[in-house]
Amino acid sequence: MNRKIKAKLTEGNITKLLTRLSLQMMAGMISMVIFNLVDTFYIGQLGKNELAAMSFTFPVILVVQSIALGLGMGTSSVVSRAIGKGDTSRVKRLSTDALFLAALIVAVAAVTGELTISPLFTLLGADTVTLPLIKEYMRIWYIGVIFVVFPMVGNNIIRATGDMKTPALIMTIAAIANMILDPLLIFGIGPFPAMGLAGAALATVLGRASTLVFALIILIKRELITFKKLTYGELFTSWKQILFIGIPAALTRIIDPLTMGIITRMVSNFGTSAVAGFGVGTRLELIVLMIVRSLAAVMIPFTGQNWGSGKFGRVSEAVKKVYKFSLFWSVIAYGGFYLTGSFMAGLFNKDPVVISTVVTYIRIIALTYGFQGILLLSSSVLNAIGKPIHAIVLSLLRLIVLYIPLAVLGSKIFGLKGIFAGGAAANLITGILAAVIVIKILANSK
User: Fold this and answer.
1) 3-class SS of residue 17
2) pLDDT of residue 6
């Protein structure tokens, strides 16, 4: 049976469609937030050394996840456009070849990671107490890295068809599995041995393994992959198309936390409480922007399918709607933060300096959340239509060219407020520029 894969996002009311898909996407994101919070909570019960060891692993895990997410975005972009064109055989070929590419990345990551645990984490600052604990965790994590990379690619293939509900359900299953397994394997409840940090790694791997199984079942059942004999020419053609989007997307995701590390270092000059307040503020920001990030993720398959179908006007209409929503949502967020900032900060810490820093940060930055959202949405649209260089240049402009220099200048003139004002200015400038670029490209495509 050779079932035709139909484009689901090229018809219907745009507002209703994007709202429904974004809410489904956000459900999946929330489940992953819970996944990480549960891990951190239980590991924190083991002691500060284990928690510190876990903290050392975050940057490395983030890099691998960023590569996987970039690969997933590249896959979603090319697959959704092929769906829009009605080219079912190409959809299957691209999806299958993306999974082969994921397998290659897994092999490289696992071998390289295992061989570099000691030198890499020593370089990152691990000492004789935390390094053995890091090895305990990462050796299991590297063995299970296939369960991290494969599902991200598989879920993005499913999303490219216009289905956000199934990936969200798959991610929720992983979060539930991890929530159940964590205490059993970490503390040795019932017949399970007490494995400590290694138990946390195993729980994560097994939880992620469930996502791989379900994703593969869905891909095979919906005939989104092919078992036909492939040629190296076809394989490399697919990889070239996927990586053309995937590499810039991955680099963008890696640059973001590196930049925040530099900004955190600047904030540290104003004391530990300022750093704590900045950390709380950025976490509140992630929560507020979750709905816009969900919408940005949805815009990749939506734009890809409509672009592939030649429905450029529908893409333009959607872009205008999501830009307006981003600005509207930022007004709501700013109002909420202005009224409840002190109360929300106090839920995390009662230190007056921490609270003051949180309030200062969110009242300055929240003014420009709408423009930051426009940049996120624009990057998704640009990646979806095959213009990833535009997307990464905009991200580099915001983070490297504007945010860091303006923060340095602002700190010298206005202190801590100047650092935050630098971030706000970077959001404002790049958000406006991104909107101008996307609208111009869409106008020229008609």
Assistant:
1) helix
2) 82
